[in-house]
Amino acid sequence: MSIHLIRHGQSAFNAVFSGGADPMIFDAPLTQLGASQAQEARHKVAELGIREVVCSPLTRALQTARLIFPIEDIHVVAETREHLGHSCDVGRAPAELQAVFPDIPFAHLPDIWWHQGELNAVGVPVEPADVFEARMLLLASTLRARDTRPLAVVCHGHVIEALTGTHPDNCGIVELRD
User: Fold this and answer.
1) In this structure, which of 9, 106, 137, 150 has its CB flanked by the most CB atoms within 10 Å?
2) By C-alpha distance, which of 10, 135, 151 is closest to 75?
């Protein structure tokens, strides 16, 4: 049975960042295009027979998951968060997320669930590559150990690339092989 990794729709950060200066959009939400991408992906995902949804606690992923899976329970797993290197990858406290997504449980998350460490020139903590890689190894093992399949994981481009070697477009779907 399958594990389907789904990249979030276009975020406000994705829309303006071209590799230069960080535009300082913390926990970037979806753009209108990103919401449309998620609604289009909903039709593709409907054919997969998803029985469980796991999601990153970053807003763009939560919004994407809610648009694709409007009725399903969403299980937030902090390890599915993006590799922290820019402002958009800094999260928000569970209480703030709960206010925006009242139907999704966040109480299991610590107040700071994203990487904390050395700050870059603009004051954003950067997750070292080896820390990210170790987190991805643990995540792959954790996902494969989940009993319910087919499983959808709404997450991020670098996460999907680390797990599969493929970096999908926004709302792209990649299967994680056992």
Assistant:
1) 9
2) 151
Q: pLDDT tens across 112-143, in order?
A: 999 999 999 999 999 999 999 999 999 999 99
Map 105-147 to HEC letters: CCCCCCCCCCCCCCECCCCCECCCHHHHHHHHHHHHHHHHHCC
Q: Which residues of 130-145 are buried (b: 16+ CB within 10 A; e: fewer)?
A: eebeebbeebbeebee
How far, rounded to the nearest angstrom, does the alpha carbon of residue 79 sit from its chain's CA centroid?
9
pTM: 0.97
**Beta carbons of 12 and 28 less than 8 angstroms apart:** yes
Terminal alpha carbon distance of the chain? 9
Helix H or strand E segment including 16 = helix 12-16
Peptide bond between residue 150 and the one before it cis (omega within 30 degrees of 0): yes
Spatial separation of the C-alpha atoms in residues 45 and 13, rounded to whole Å = 25
Q: Cα-flanking dihedrals φ and ψ of residue 63, to 5°?
A: -65, -40
Strands ordered across the beta sheet of 151-155:
74-76, 52-55, 151-155, 3-7, 173-176
